[in-house]
Specification:
The chain has about 300 residues and is of the alpha+beta class. The protein has three domains: about 65-130, Arc Repressor Mutant, subunit A (Orthogonal Bundle); about 135-180 and about 260-290, Alpha-Beta Plaits; about 185-260, YebC, transcriptional regulation domain (Alpha-Beta Plaits). The chain contains nine helices and twelve strands. The strands form three sheets. It has a six-stranded mixed β-sheet. Strands 7-5-6-12 form a four-stranded antiparallel β-sheet. A two-stranded antiparallel sheet has the order 1-2. A hairpin with a 4-residue loop joins strand 9 and strand 10 (about 225-230). Helix 3 (about 75-90) packs antiparallel against helix 4 (about 100-110) and helix 6 runs antiparallel to helix 9. The protein is globular, with a radius of gyration of 21 Å. The two termini are about 40 Å apart.
Length: about 300
């Protein structure tokens, strides 16, 4: 394959902010290299920006597939938003969306996913009178003859009971608790759209804004819809989300995800065993997310 030509250009200093890790690495040199021959990827100061026309080419595709299957069940989706509303009220210290940015953003996403306003108001009302022990917890397990690595994200005020319930499930399916953090990459995923729809202009604008807000990567996931995928440190999700919104991006979702370093394929018997495990997890209603190392999961 012939080498693509490149051209140097200068990023203005107003793109460089104190919270940008990219800037700190490159300062004081503001010279960047951008590929002008663009069908797929261009790099700006080591900043990777991709246009992914095929879902299978994206590191996000597997997680998006998992989430799409799960989100298809509205009752589970609305219960998940109710938990997120509760957490937003605790973290933002207010049940009033006008005074609590995180809560307002969570409600906006819930509405986009067609959660009824009455259900949202009920969730806010219930959360307003509850205790402050409600937290995010992560449990890691191995199942299906220790081949499938699973990270479970829970939101609960009783993690001990949740772990006991999971222990019961693992005993029935032959799974075990394990330390799997080193086998996954944690990252923040912010999905957004912008008014600009021309792919090349959108990519260029999104890259400038990603650098400005301190994001790590940006991908154009859907050219027709102008759907962008920004990635950042999990600790920076809410700040990056807020600053993107201030730049007039429409935020579709903002989540803390786990991407496996390697994936595996299951045979039919293993798929059935894993489906049985997933079915049994339904008894633990505080489970919010399930991440695994399966390639092209069917559930």
């Amino acid at each position: 394959m012939p080498t693509m030509p490149t051209i140097d250009f200068i990023l203005p200093k107003h793109y460089i902010t104190s919270h940008s890790s990219l800037a700190s690495k490159m300062f004081p040199q503001f010279v960047s290299r951008m590929s002008r021959n663009l069908p797929h990827v261009m790099t700006v100061r080591g900043f990777r920006m991709g246009r992914y026309l095929l879902a299978g080419h994206s590191k996000w595709a597997n997680i998006r597939h998992i989430k799409a299957a799960k989100d298809g069940q509205k009752s589970q989706l609305f219960a998940r938003f109710a938990r997120q509303i509760r957490l937003a009220i605790l973290e933002g210290k207010s049940p009033n969306p006008a005074m609590n940015t995180l809560l307002r953003q969570t409600v906006d996403v819930a509405l986009k996913k067609q959660m009824p306003m009455a259900s949202i108001q009920t969730a806010i009302k219930r959360a307003s009178g509850q205790g402050t022990d409600f937290r995010r917890h992560v449990l890691e397990v191995k199942v299906v003859q220790n081949r499938v690595y699973v990270i479970l994200v829970l939101y609960t005020d009783n993690p001990t009971q949740a772990k006991m319930n999971l222990t019961t499930v693992l005993r029935k399916v032959g799974g075990t608790f394990a330390d799997l953090g080193h086998l996954f990459t944690e990252t923040g995923i912010i999905v957004a759209t912008a008014e600009e729809k021309t792919p090349e202009k959108l990519l260029e604008m999104a890259t400038e804004h990603a650098i400005l807000v301190g994001a790590e990567d940006v991908e154009l996931m859907d050219e027709k819809e102008g759907l962008l995928n920004f990635t950042c440190s999990p600790a920076e999700i809410q700040r990056v989300r807020k600053e993107l919104a201030e730049l007039n991006y429409e935020i579709e979702s903002a989540e803390h995800v786990y991407i496996p370093h390697t994936s595996i394929e299951l045979n039919e018997a293993e798929k059935a065993a894993y489906a049985n495990f997933r079915d049994r997890l339904k008894m633990i209603d505080c489970i919010d997310e399930i991440f695994d190392n399966i390639d092209n999961p069917s559930s």
